[in-house]
């Protein structure tokens, strides 16, 4: 990360496109996300990342996951593509200070490469990630079909879906690098009808054009994967962050990348929750490209405390 990139990643927005509710979105906001993922290399296996000027109280989990995957990928030959990651959120991140990513080159085999990453702040681990990379190989191929849903352009924008709820939707006032269109009822609206099906479906895409960098597209997808996944748990119980007395946080996060894709094209995020117990909720998600290809699978367990 150059000084210019660092400045771009942390600068506040001015003179940028605004959504219908006055929140920054579009290419400048996406460019800042790209800058956030452009880590500074401070040693052979040590990288440093920053958080945006407008951040939640804790660092957004998708940001840490995306940055950690960038750090791992920077130590792997580009012809080896990431096919899976498994991670744990250990402590809440502090957005006011940089995050140091320490990469352990666990193994470099003939076909697979394994990396382990520890994210550190204030001398303590806040996040760990293990990722596996593989050379492209032919083999068996099948997938579950994509659900039949309305096209993204026929659905309300995020600003339209959040109209009248801005003070209740936790991240609604933050800049939007990801264009989100809810297929199912948004959880802040669904709660008004009480408990429902443990399902959440949204169309997503990077809100602009991304460079032709396979690792970057995967890291943007990892970032986006943490945005709506736990909605499937919340709608099952008719509750939502900030509106009801529910405290939540991501505990772990796993992803499998099945096929190549572009994160600046539309993809369907089809999420469901098979179980919640012990103040934890489990959610699974499937990413489908616009043409119906299953490109990634996600599983996350989140902390869900009713106060």
Which homologous superfamily in CATH is the superfamily? Answer: Acyl-CoA thioesterase, double hotdog domain
Top CATH class: Mainly Beta
Mean pLDDT rating: 93
Choose one word for the global shape.
Answer: globular
What's the CATH architecture name? Beta Barrel
Give helix % range.
10-25%
Number of E strands = 12
Most strands sheet: 12 strands, antiparallel
Number of discrete domains = 1
Spans of 5+ residues with little confidence (pLDDT < 50)?
A: none
- Based on secondary structure, the structural category is alpha+beta
Strand order of the largest sheet: 1-2-4-5-6-3-9-12-11-10-8-7
> Helix and strand string, N-terminal first?
HHEEHEEEEHEHEHHEEEE
Distance between the termini: 41 Å
- Rg over C-alpha atoms, rounded to the nearest angstrom: 19 Å
Key structural traits:
alpha+beta, Porin, globular, twelve-stranded antiparallel β-sheet, 307 residues
Task: Please provide a written account of the structure.
One of its GO terms (biological process) is fatty acid catabolic process. It holds the Pfam family Acyl_CoA_thio. Keywords: Hydrolase, Lipid metabolism. This is Acyl-CoA thioesterase 2. The protein has 307 residues and is α+β, with helices and mostly antiparallel strands. It has a single domain, classed as Beta Barrel (Porin). The protein has helices spanning 3-10, 27-36, 61-73, 158-162, 187-190, 214-225, 231-237, and strands at 40-43, 46-49, 80-89, 99-108, 112-121, 124-135, 178-182, 199-206, 246-257, 267-277, 280-289, 294-306. A 12-stranded antiparallel sheet has the order 1-2-4-5-6-3-9-12-11-10-8-7, with helices on one face. Helix 1 (3-10) crosses helix 2 and helix 3 runs antiparallel to helix 6. The protein is globular. The mean pLDDT is 93.
């Amino acid at each position: 990360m150059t000084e210019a990139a660092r400045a771009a990643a942390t600068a506040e927005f001015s003179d940028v496109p605004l959504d219908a509710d006055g929140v920054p979105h579009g290419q400048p906001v996406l460019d800042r996300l790209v800058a956030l993922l452009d880590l500074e290399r401070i040693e052979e296996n040590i990288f440093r990342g920053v958080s945006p000027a407008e951040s939640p109280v804790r660092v957004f989990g998708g940001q840490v996951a995306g940055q950690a995957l960038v750090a791992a990928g920077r130590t792997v030959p580009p012809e080896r593509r990431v096919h899976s990651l498994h991670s744990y959120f250990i402590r809440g991140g502090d957005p006011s200070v940089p995050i140091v990513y320490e990469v352990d080159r666990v193994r470099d085999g003939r076909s697979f490469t394994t990396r382990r990453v520890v994210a550190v702040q204030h001398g303590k681990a806040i996040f760990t990630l293990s990722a596996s990379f593989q050379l492209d190989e032919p083999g068996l191929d099948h997938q579950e079909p994509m659900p039949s849903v309305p096209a993204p352009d026929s659905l309300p924008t995020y600003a339209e879906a959040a109209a009248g709820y801005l003070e209740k939707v936790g991240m609604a006032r933050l800049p939007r690098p990801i264009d989100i269109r809810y297929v199912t009822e948004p959880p802040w609206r669904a709660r008004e009808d009480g408990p429902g099906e443990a399902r959440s479906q949204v169309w997503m895409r990077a809100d602009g054009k991304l460079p032709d960098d396979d690792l970057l597209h995967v890291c943007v997808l990892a970032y986006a994967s943490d945005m709506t996944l736990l909605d499937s748990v919340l709608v099952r119980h008719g509750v939502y962050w900030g509106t009801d007395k529910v405290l939540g946080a991501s505990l772990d996060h796993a992803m499998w990348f099945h096929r190549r894709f572009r994160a600046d094209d539309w993809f369907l995020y089809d999420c469901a929750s098979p179980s919640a117990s012990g103040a934890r909720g489990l959610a699974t998600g499937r990413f489908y490209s616009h043409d119906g290809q299953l490109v990634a699978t996600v599983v996350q367990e989140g902390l869900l405390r009713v106060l």
